Amino acid sequence: MDFQAALGLALPLGIGIAAIGSGLGLGMIGSGAMQAIGRQPEAAAKIQLAMIIIGALAEALTIYAFVTMFILSGKIGG
Amino acid sequence: MGLEFLARVRRTTLWVGALAAIVGMTYSGFAAGGGLAAGAVWSLVNLFLVERLVVALTGSDRGTPAAARGAALALAGMLGLFAAGAFLLMALPAEPLLVGFGFPFGVMLLKACSTLLLESAAWRRFTASRWQVALAVALLIAATWAIAERSVAASGGAVAAGPSGAAHGDAAHADAAHGDAGEHGASSKPTMFPNFLGVVIEANHGKPWADALHHVEPVVFSLFVALLLSGIAIAANRRRALRPGRFQAGVELVVQGLFDFVASVLGEKHARRYLPFLGSLFLYILAMNWIGFVPGFHAATANINITAGLALCTFLFVQFTGMRELGFGGWVDHMAGSPRSAIEWGLVPIMLPIHIIGELAKPLSLACRLFGNIFGEDMLLVGFASLGIMMLGFIPNVPVGIPLQLPFLFFCLLTSTLQALVFTTLSTVYLLLMLPHDDHGHEGEAHPAH
Predict the structure, then answer these.
(1) Which of A75, B176, B367, B421 could pair with B308 as two cysteines, CB 3.0-4.6 Å apart?
(2) B407 and B421, same domain (yes or no)
(3) Domain containing B140: what range?
(4) Per-residue pLDDT, B207
(5) Residues B282, B299: one domain?
(6) Nearest by Cα to B310 from B362, B274, B263, B265
(7) Residue B148: partners with Cβ closer than 8 Å, 6 or more residues away
(8) In a domain, B193, yes or no
(9) pLDDT tens column, B387-397
(10) Can you tell me the distance from the alpha carbon of B222 to that of B225, in angstroms, rounded to the nearest whole number?
């Protein structure tokens, strides 16, 4: 298997696996936020803000994987 | 058709002349574009002088010494203009000058024809039905495209820009061809939507200044956004009224909102001090992200260099603030984990490198997060737009497409805003962590997990 075939196999798999992790993480963040809002609807705005910020942090890890994929995908078909 | 008609002709000619000059300079070199501009300006000055002369000779105050003076000045101006024209003919090629000279007259002719047309009964009948108008516009665009293609193929020049109506789709297809043709080997760069600068660079392919411009393309767009925001800020600060007008009130709304947001993290005292940096950061990143959705422009943050620059600025600002607030010794102490007991002192050799790496990881993550998100959005939109073009690929030679990226535009608008917010919030939090923690007193302050 030459390196291009290996890259072609590994890159989409890498993104997919990274997406699993951030999917789980974001789901947990969302569920925690929902429960907190359910308990205290007055604090909804603060909780929403914190949820969005932490969501962006969790998503960043998948973005790193995405960027790596893009850099390496240039090497395929070279 | 009075004098105000001539004023409108002047205004229109200035716009037309500027546009024609830019197009001419892009596709035929500086001499041609400069000739067009110079010819148009010369013709406008000529028109102005003739107008003054006629008004002086036939106006309501003819025969008075003031009118005679005006007529004499106009005649003297015409002599000067004649000399200027001779000089121009020596310096610039003749055809562009002649074409530029004809611009005001062309504009006058078109304005007169359109006035005649728009007030006729036939036009009213035609525009009564929307479908007729839409069909006519579509046929017009198709005809223009066919003619342009044929004429450009005949002259063998660069691909004409064509009518930039409808979706981004058309131009993305042309740019895909450009992108492949303009590659100097190396790695295959992903397709992007075309922008104003890209068109200029492609048309002047191979010239050294075009290659240099290609390298600093994102910087040009970021500078443009910076100038735009500075202009808005300067304009809002003129004639600051105690009872503000709409524009000033709008800007004050934005600043107040940003202040409340920063104060909710840093506390009022610190917020007042650090609002300029953090607020500008938010607005700058937001503007750069949003301008990517305007056709013809490019989001500078879709380039790692720009985001790395922003993250570096934030990193240096936070560290410098730490050194200033805590003193240099206090800053090192903070980096070592603020050891107070013997155990903590013993752990310093571990804590210091860990904290330093942690501090270095923060700007890295900021840069990569912003770049990845905005670049990813761009790729998403390009992907769907290309798909839309491929779907209509069975129509030969007409690069239109179904704008499939439209629903994603709204999603990307949201995520662009979010990423600007996240960048700013994280910068604020890093600043908070660096400032001396007051243990009692600050209510309404978020307690972030380290």
Answers:
(1) B367
(2) yes
(3) 129-162
(4) 83
(5) yes
(6) B362
(7) B160, B162
(8) no
(9) 888 888 887 77
(10) 5
Chain A residues lying within 8 Å of B371, measured CB to CB: 67
Q: Please give, rounded to a whole number of angstroms, the shortest distance from the CA of B448 to a CA of chain A.
A: 10
My answer on whether B120 and B135 are in the same domain is: no
Assess B418–A contact: CB distance below 8 Å, yes or no.
yes
Q: What is the per-residue pLDDT for B187?
A: 39
Kindly identify which residue of chain A lies nearest to residue B377, measuring between CA atoms.
A63
> Are residues B98 and B137 located together in one domain of the fold?
no
**For chain A, which domains are there?**
10-71 (1.20.20.10)
Which of A11, A59, A62, A72 is the best mutation test for B, with the most CBs of B within 10 A? A59
- B421: closest chain A residue by CA: A53
Work out how many domains chain B is built from and give that number.
3
Look at A66 and B368 and tell me if their CB atoms are within 8 Å. no
Nearest by CB: A78 against B187, B365, B375: B187
**Which residues of chain A neighbour B188 with C-beta distances below 8 Å?**
74, 77
Q: Same structural domain for residues B24 and B94?
A: yes
Specify whether B102 is located in the same domain as B156: no
Same domain assignment for residues B47 and B147? no
ipTM summary value: 0.80
Q: If interface means Cβ-Cβ distance under 8 Å, which residues of chain A face chain B?
A: 50, 52-53, 56-57, 59-60, 63-64, 66-67, 70, 74-75, 77-78
Beta carbons of B372 and A66 less than 8 Å apart: yes
The alpha carbon of residue B32 and the mean position of all alpha carbons in its chain are separated, in whole angstroms, by 26
User: Is there a contact between A66 and B419 if contact means CB atoms under 8 Å apart?
Assistant: no
The answer to whether B419 contacts chain A (CB < 8 Å) is: yes
Q: Cβ separation of A77 and B372 shorter than 8 Å?
A: no
pLDDT averages per 10-residue partition of chain B, 450 residues: 80 87 82 86 88 83 80 89 88 85 88 85 81 89 84 59 37 37 42 85 83 90 95 86 84 93 89 94 96 92 94 95 88 84 85 89 92 92 88 78 88 92 92 75 45
Residue B178 has a pLDDT of 35
Give the distance from residue B188's alpha carbon to the nearest chain A alpha carbon, in angstroms: 6
Are B421 and A57 in contact (CB < 8 Å)? no
Q: Which residue of A has its CA nearest to B447?
A: A50
Closest residue of chain B to A56, computed from CA coordinates: B422
- Rounded to two decimals, the pTM is 0.66
